[in-house]
Amino acid sequence: MQYLRRDKKDEEDGSQSNPFQNLDKSAVLQEARTFNETPINPRKCIHILTKILYVLNQGQHLGTTEATEAFFAMTKLFQSKDVMLRRMVYLAIKELANIAEDVIIVTSSLTKDMTGKEDMYRASAIRALCKITDSTMLQGIERYLKQAIVDKNASVSSASLVSALHLMKPNYDVVKRWVNEAQEAVSSDNTMVQYHALGLLYHVKKTDRLAVSKLIFKYIKQSLRSPYAVCMLIRIASKYLDEEPEVVDTPVYDFLESCLRHKSEMVIYEAARALVNLKNLKSRDLCPAISVLQLFLSSPRPTLRFAAVRTLNKVAMTQPMSVTTCNLDLENLITDVNRSIATLAITTLLKTGNEGSVDRL
Amino acid sequence: MDSAVLEASLYTVKAIAILDNDGERVVAKYYDDTYQTTKEQKEFEKNLFNKTHRANAEIIMLDGLTCVYRSNVDLFFYVMGSSNENELILVSVLNAFYDAISQLLRKNVEKRGLMDNLDGVVSILDEIVDGGVILESDASSILQRVAIKSDDVPITEQTVAQVLQTAKDQLKWSLLK
A239 vs B131: CB contact, 8 Å cut-off? Predict the structure, then answer.
């Protein structure tokens, strides 16, 4: 309580704009001993955990012993049912996972949370658990993770898909057994789940060209709802096409072309960029993509102008003739308030312009 | 020309940061080893801040990274990705980040309020990007996952100033509607 009062005084002063300024690492770790007190005061503990996270975030170095000590004190907080406090505990676990020793001590608490009823806990518990898990322990929780991938709750499903991706590097043989669940998750109504599932499938299969082609042909027919997932598919498809001798008139090419008419700008841009970068495409086939980028050049949004002019700049290096249609729009960008856009516009024009137009610059 | 065809990957975001108007780090998270030490990170942040704090340009290339940013009163929000990344995807992450924080702080996006709600801010950051993968890009879903109840302080524990501020905000927003 005394602590709260002090906090209030600071607020009333209004002079101190950063309550976390000049925090001393050892003082904060000292405060972490409060975690052992019963009953647990959630507000106070949240504040201390925030301080620890802040100190770590500022780049202060924590030694193994002190980190381990703080970590063990923190495990006491699992007794509290406070949702916010639990979230902060998960966060701190993730931050300390690589510094403290014996972090696997929280495995059973986290497994309990991830399989429990409280949806609020489950997704975050999965992510924290996967952060502290090593290859030997993964076997033990594999069953739960597979189930979580196809969970009705979108955040649970996303959490396990993304965690699976992080776990894949050291545990490829385990994670590749989860493709059926991932496949099921691609048809989820939730756009993020769809994106994560497609991403995981590709990461598992990317070294197998036949499997990748099957993946592409399956999902270009089925229209994906998530713009992120479509961008991902465009990238997979264009990489695949780049290794094909004949590009135009294949279903994959038609898919890329159709994405130029997608309702999301993100997808339109991704498709245009993929098309102009294909090495086996003739210049006349570039036209639809170039005209889309030309439209972006006059957008009021700087990011769109930047994206378009940067892509055109690249095209101009190899096929300057295809970009000449955009010269007028590019000239307008020379005075753009964003210096990067202006510079890119000038260098592009230098490649595409003829003598007369370069003189005008 | 090097192969311009991108490797498809879920790893999209290289870093995300909030700096104050002195260019000092409020929070920052780096998801790969482009900048391994704190010293390198802070140098990069300083550089980034110097290049962006006056020009309100939304996007910049720095050190071979694409950086998109937004500012408000005394805070700067940044999202960094590889130079080959789809710029619009990075902007969607930036907007989600900014909007979620703006809702958390009830539209008063400034350093003071942000510091008072730092626990919420780090939770939001955690729900947006997980190890470089975009986890969620919709501000309201993010807030839902973070479970921030904006009125969880009992009235007796609030200071007079806080109560007045809340009342003022509510009045302001009801008038603006």
Answer: no
